Structure formats: C-alpha cells, structure tokens
Amino acid sequence: MGYTKEEKAMIWLDGLALDYAKKAQLLHAFRDPYEIVARFSERESEIGGITGEKMLHAMRASLEGGGAAALLESYRAAGVSCVTCFSELYPEALRAADNPPFVLYCRGNTRLLRERKFAIVGSRRTPPQIAERAKRIAEGLSGPFAIVTGHADGGDTAAISGALESGRLICVLAFGFAHVAQAENAALLEKISERGLLVTEYVPAQPAQRYTFPARNRIIAGLAEGVLVVSGGERSGTRITARHAYDLGRDVFAFPYAIGDPAGAGCNKLIKDYAKLTENLVDITSVFGINLTEKEAAPLTGAEKRVYDCLGAEPVHTSRIAAQAGMKEAELSPVLIMLAMKKRAVSCGGNRWARI
After folding, report:
1. Residue 154 φ/ψ region, left for φ over 0, alpha for ψ in the -120 to 50 degree band, beta for the rest
2. Fewest CB within 10 A of the end CB: N or C in the chain?
3. Are 228 and 256 in contact (CB under 8 A)?
4. Residue limits of the Smf/DprA SLOG domain (predicted)?
C-alpha cells in the first residue's frame, strides 16, 4: 500500500506518545503533517512549546532513526495497513464523530470502509433466542451494508456470525494489533481479518484499557448510518454506542424486551427515549428505503406448528411445552430439533426453548 508524504507524516505523528489534543494542536499550527517533519529543525521551539521538552527530544530521535519509514516497515511486517484522515479510503461519516481518529490501523479488506455501513451491537449477556434473531438480521443486512460491530461474546458475536460468510463485516477493536493473539476470541478475529476487516484507532502496541472500550464505541457509531442494539442492561456499553449515534443524527434501533428482563432493560429505555422498536429486518430496511425482505421461512408440519405456537420470546421449559402441545416429552424432542434446524426455535439451556 503506497502512502503520500502527508499520509506518512500523519502515521509518524500518530505513533508518538502524545495525547489527541496535542496532536490536533500541532496539526493546527502547521499547514499539514508533512510540514511538521519538513520544518522540524527550524520550528523546534514552537513544537516543543506544544509537546514539552521530553517529547521534543523523542520526536527528534524518531526522525533521526528513520521516522515514518521505520514505523511503516514495522507495520507492514505485522500485516497492518494504515488509512489516515488524508486518505481517500477514510470514511467521511467518521469525520463527524467526537475526536475522529487521525489514523485507522487495519487488517483485511480496507475497501469496506467506503461501503454503506450499519452497526449491530449487544452485551455479553445476550439471550440465545435474541442472539439468533440478531444473527439473522446481520445476515440479511450484509447485502446492502457492511456490518460494523465490536468483538465481545454475545450480541457482537451474533452479528459477526451473521455477516462473516458474506465478508461484508467490519470489527472495531479496543486495542492494538499486537494484542490480537491474546484476545479471548483470537481465532475468530483471525477469520475476520481474512474475510472482512479488523480496524482500530490504536497503534499496535496499545493494550486494552477500561477507557478504550467506550472510546471504541464512538467509532462504531461514527462509521455507521444506523445502529441496532440487540441487548444491554441499564448501564451497558451498548447504550454509549447508541447515544453517540443519536448525537450524530444516525438512526437508532433496538429490540424490545419483557418488562423487568435485565438483559434488555437498556433496550427498553432506548425505545422509550429515541430508538425505533425493531422486531425484524424490514423494520430497519424500510427506514433506509431498501426493498429487502427476510428469506421465506421453511414450512412447518402439523406437529411443528403445534409446538411452535406454544413458544414465545421468553424461554419455556420442555415439560410445559409438551403439556400445552399435548405431547409426551420424548415426542417433543425431535420436533424441537427440526424447529431449530428451520431457524424457528432455539435452545436456551436448562431444557428451555424460545421462539426466534
């Protein structure tokens, strides 16, 4: 991947241990990042007034040691490419976010950054039947949109499962690429980098910290035209993503939950405040004027229909399902398995099943 001199200088500047405000101050003081490099010697005092003496020495040493060229070689060796705010691939929608990243560090298909994008996020405690619904919506939306999500188990993983096969998937990391191998879902992240795109605002050496996760959420919201929240409690990070999206004027959608269900208390609050109540794919596509419907469900046999009618959004124990359907539990088991294969029901553990 080739870079202009401005892009190289921006990558060098972003790699310095300077906070966002000081980097922005330097960019404001110079015409472009290349000017910082080209005129470093003659404007050292001005630069040092912004960065401090210690950082000024570090910048000088970095430039003497090869500057951007040395840094880019290390990134190339690690399989990392860079999309700077001066690059054609930089998403225009992201520029409206709070403190838009100067550089996006990427592994995978960077062309996805210029596609239409829709975000799907959820908490780690996403109920199985909700995860299945989120997966189906991600699969359907991955035609007109590239799906944007995080990398936690639960709702994020459901979105990944739905969009991964199409390759139209962008996963936003809360750490640098040097820490992917140690992540709890490292194998899945590797698959995403091969079929879709991994992206982060953090230099490779940056580990995950408490602050990097909410900061990452603003990027998910900033990249997307809309955000679907599939699960989340009152204080879930998914609500941070939703709030960023709302503040940016993006459409926010949320699955409804039963009153008192802690897994979806945050979703219900979002619907009460500003999110669009969402039950299926069409609830989303109609907002964007997209004529797209979910795949027609496979027909049910008489026994399957009888059992399906006994299921609801909340998990039900098999003993109760059998009683309502007028079946023995031994007869019920193969029917439930067929409903699961037809993507009409899901096992929620503890001999409980729910409708998808």
Report:
1. left
2. N
3. no
4. 82-286
What predicted TM-score, i.e. pTM, was given to this entire model?
Answer: 0.84
Q: Which class is 112-285 in CATH?
A: alpha beta
What are the pLDDT digits (tens) for 146-179?
A: 999 999 899 999 999 999 999 999 999 999 999 9
CA 5, CA 16: separation in Å to the nearest integer?
17
Q: Is the four-CA dihedral 163, 164, 170, 174 of positive or negative sign?
A: positive
pLDDT single digits (tens) 50-69: 999 999 999 999 998 888 89
CA distance 154 to 322: 29
Write the class of the CATH domain 302-355.
mainly alpha
In the block, residue with structure tokens 């239409």: 116
Sorted by where each begins, the domain ranges of the chain are 5-108, 112-285, 302-355
CA distance 220 to 122: 12
Residue 249 gets the label, from left (phi > 0), alpha (psi -120 to 50) or beta, of left
Per-residue three-class SS string for the chain? CCCCHHHHHHHHHHCCCCCHHHHHHHHHHCCCHHHHHHCCCCCHHHHHHHHCHHHHHHHHHHHHCCHHHHHHHHHHHCCCEEEECCCCCCCHHHHHCCCCCCEEEEEECHHHHHCCEEEEECCCCCCHHHHHHHHHHHHHHCCCCEEEECCCCCHHHHHHHHHCCCCCEEEECCCCHHHCCCCCCHHHHHHHHHHCEEEECCCCCCCCCCCHHHHHHHHHHHHCCEEEECCCCCCCHHHHHHHHHHHCCCEEEECCCCCCCHHHHHHHHHHHHCCEECCCHHHHHCCCCCCCCCCCCCCCCHHHHHHHCCCCCCCEEHHHHHHHHCCCHHHHHHHHHHHHHCCCEEEEECCEEEEC
